[in-house]
């Protein structure tokens, strides 16, 4: 992890902790979580907004007014106040790290394990729910699906990322392992026959 990434994570965690604790004190953690999830989805869908808010060419005041016009009435007052503080301190570029930090705190508070899956083709909602239930049962913990990636190159099966672990149960990996086993056995037989 680069020094910039560590700095982003550290700053994100500090702000996330502050808004999380304030939300809990005001009994609004679900509301703030919903607001931040929506904000994250807006950033993912509108790249120009992210570039504008991160840009040094626009003043803090301009960015704060823009956020106010976009989200006032949509977000809780606590979330709006928090965004204004972040804008005033010129920390808007850390919002993705703040949102991720808030999610980690939420997961810890609720005993959830964040899980990411990679599959060969898009799964429908009922299959995703069934898969999440099966993963939760296998891990013997409640999970939160953070991402579902489609990668046709895995051919079939699934890759599951959770905590610092990866479970790779893909057809591609099985084929690679089978080929490696066959070639290593072939090399052993060749050496044996040379004796």
Condensed summary:
By secondary structure, the chain is an alpha+beta fold. Helix content is 65%, strand content 15%. It has helices at residues 3-25, 29-45, 47-54, 60-71, 77-88, 95-110, 125-139, 171-194, and strands spanning 112-119, 142-150, 157-162, 165-170.
Q: Count of DSSP helices?
A: 8
Average pLDDT value?
Answer: 91
- Report on the biggest sheet: 4 strands, mixed
* Largest sheet, spatial ordering of strands: 2-1-3-4
CATH class of the largest domain: Mainly Alpha
Instruction: Please give the share of residues in helix.
Output: 55-70%
Strand content: 5-15%
Outline: elongated
Please mark out the parts with pLDDT under 50 across 5 or more consecutive residues, or reply none.
none
What does this structure look like?
The chain has 195 residues and is α+β, with helices and mostly antiparallel strands. The chain has two domains: 3-108, Peroxidase, domain 1, CATH 1.10.520.20; 111-189, no CATH class. It is 65% helix and 15% strand. The protein is built from eight helices and four strands. It has a four-stranded mixed β-sheet with strand order 2-1-3-4. Helix 1 (3-25) packs across helix 6 (95-110), helix 2 crosses helix 3 and helix 4 (60-71) runs antiparallel to helix 5. It starts with a helix and ends with a helix.
């Amino acid at each position: 992890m680069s020094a910039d990434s560590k700095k982003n994570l550290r700053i994100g965690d500090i702000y996330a902790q502050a808004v999380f604790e304030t939300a809990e004190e005001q009994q609004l953690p679900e509301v703030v979580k919903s607001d931040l999830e929506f904000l994250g989805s807006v950033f993912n869908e509108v790249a120009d907004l992210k570039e504008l808010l991160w840009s040094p060419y626009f003043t803090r005041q301009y960015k704060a007014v823009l956020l106010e016009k976009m989200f006032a009435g949509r977000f809780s007052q606590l979330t709006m106040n928090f965004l204004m503080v972040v804008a005033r301190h010129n920390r808007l570029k850390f919002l993705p790290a703040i949102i991720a930090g808030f999610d980690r705190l939420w997961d810890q508070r609720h005993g959830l394990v964040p899980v990411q899956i990679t599959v060969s083709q898009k799964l429908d909602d009922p299959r995703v729910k069934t898969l999440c239930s099966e993963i939760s049962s296998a891990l013997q913990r409640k999970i939160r699906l953070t991402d579902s990636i489609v990668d046709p190159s895995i051919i079939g099966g699934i890759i599951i990322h959770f905590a610092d672990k990866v479970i790779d149960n893909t057809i591609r990996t099985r084929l690679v392992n089978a080929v490696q086993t066959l070639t290593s056995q072939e090399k052993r037989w060749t050496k044996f026959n040379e004796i």
